[in-house]
Amino acid sequence: MTTMKTTNHQKENITKLHKEKLGMDVPDDFFSKSKEDILNKVTKLEEPRQKVFWLKPLIAYPIAASIILAIALTFWMQNNNQTVQNDITNIEEATEFNSELLESDFLVTSLIIPEGQLQDYLDQYIVNTIIIKAELSEQELENIFINSLFIEDSLLNNYINESLIENLII
Amino acid sequence: MKQEVELTKKLKNPKLKNKAFKELLDLYQERLYWHIRKIVITHDNANDVLQETFIRIYKGITNFKEKSALHTWMYRIAYNESLRFIEKNKRNSQVSLEENNNQYLNTLMEDSYFNGNELQLKLQTIISKLSKKQQRVFQMKYFDDLSFREMSEILNVSENTLKSSYYSIVKTIEEKILV
């Protein structure tokens, strides 16, 4: 209480001193208005800054994680698709190579074989070719189903359809 | 001093900060205003700097290390804010150092809240002819009633230098005012 009295006394003195000695004045009620202004400004400083809804950590972090996961999945699926494509291409190449080899064997052998035995040889060749092709197709189908086990559900249907169509054509 | 320590504690407590800040304004708003007014001269400028000073005090109170008294720390903020304001205005108006003394009086006369009589204007003219440092020393001691130790902390000048400087300034003013 004593301190407050001293302060008020000091306040009166200090304003009086400046008026009397320096001729400096202030508007009426200036200090109470100024106090209000300062308190208003300070209150504004205290108000929490409004954050953009989607920038709140609770929402932003899951969104960021989802985006990263989506990008990672895209890369992974693309690479996986390429492996399957490579497998398919390899099988096709092997089939073509085998059939070429068989055809050239057949042509060379047909020149040596006597004409009477040619019909028997031809029948045997056709049977052999069919058996080999059937075995290869069976092997391919097995590969397709094994690969399909590792492929994403979303790609599975497309992959099976494409591979089955290819095999049916072969 | 004890009251200031208590007030500092309250100001550093987030729950009590706003109430304590009102108390701080009651205690020091007027004193800081007059300290600023003598440096920036006009009422409008003093009002701007005063507001900026208290905002800085509010923001910086948590970093106040209590190496000096609270009011000394606040005076230093007010003093620095006033100098910053003058520097900013000087850069804008590009007034030369020679013109500064005249500018002090011109600004004073232009201020609608200066109602000085002949004697008051004479004292202001004498003050305007002192160097800026001498002006600060005289005003802080004579009008703000600060101790030499407090002035030393605010101005970063030794107490002895301030004492000898102040007494020589008072002597000069007395001689000139009697002429």
CATH superfamily of the largest domain in chain B: RNA polymerase sigma factor, region 2, helix turn helix motif
Tell me the CATH architecture of the largest domain in chain B: Orthogonal Bundle
Q: Mean pLDDT across all residues of chain B, rounded?
A: 88
Structural class of chain B: mainly alpha
Radius of gyration of chain A: 46 Å
How do the helices and strands follow one another from N- to C-terminus of chain A? HHHHH
Percentage of residues in strands of chain A: under 5%
Distance between the termini of chain B: 42 Å
Helix fraction of chain A, binned, reads over 70%
User: Main β-sheet of chain A, in a few words?
Assistant: none
The global form of chain B is globular
Average pLDDT of chain A, to the nearest integer? Answer: 74
How many structural domains does the protein architecture of chain B include?
A: 2
Largest interface: A-B, 28 and 34 residues
Count of helices of chain A?
A: 5
For the secondary structure, the number of strands of chain A is 0
Query: How much is the radius of gyration of chain B in Å?
Result: 17 Å
Description:
The complex is a heterodimer of chains A (170) and B (179). Chain A contains five helices and no strands. Chain A has 170 residues and is mostly helical. Chain A has a domain of 89 residues. Chain A is rod-shaped, with a radius of gyration of 46 Å. The N terminus of chain A is likely disordered. Chain B folds into two domains: 115 residues, RNA polymerase sigma factor, region 2, helix turn helix motif (Rna Polymerase Sigma Factor, Chain: A, Orthogonal Bundle); 63 residues, Winged helix-like DNA-binding domain superfamily/Winged helix DNA-binding domain (Arc Repressor Mutant, subunit A, Orthogonal Bundle), CATH 1.10.10.10. Helices cover 79% and strands 0% of the residues of chain B. Chain B is globular. The N and C termini of chain B lie far apart (42 Å). The chains are: A mainly alpha (170), B mainly alpha (179). Chains A and B meet through helix 1 and helix 2 of A and helix 2, helix 3 and helix 6 of B.
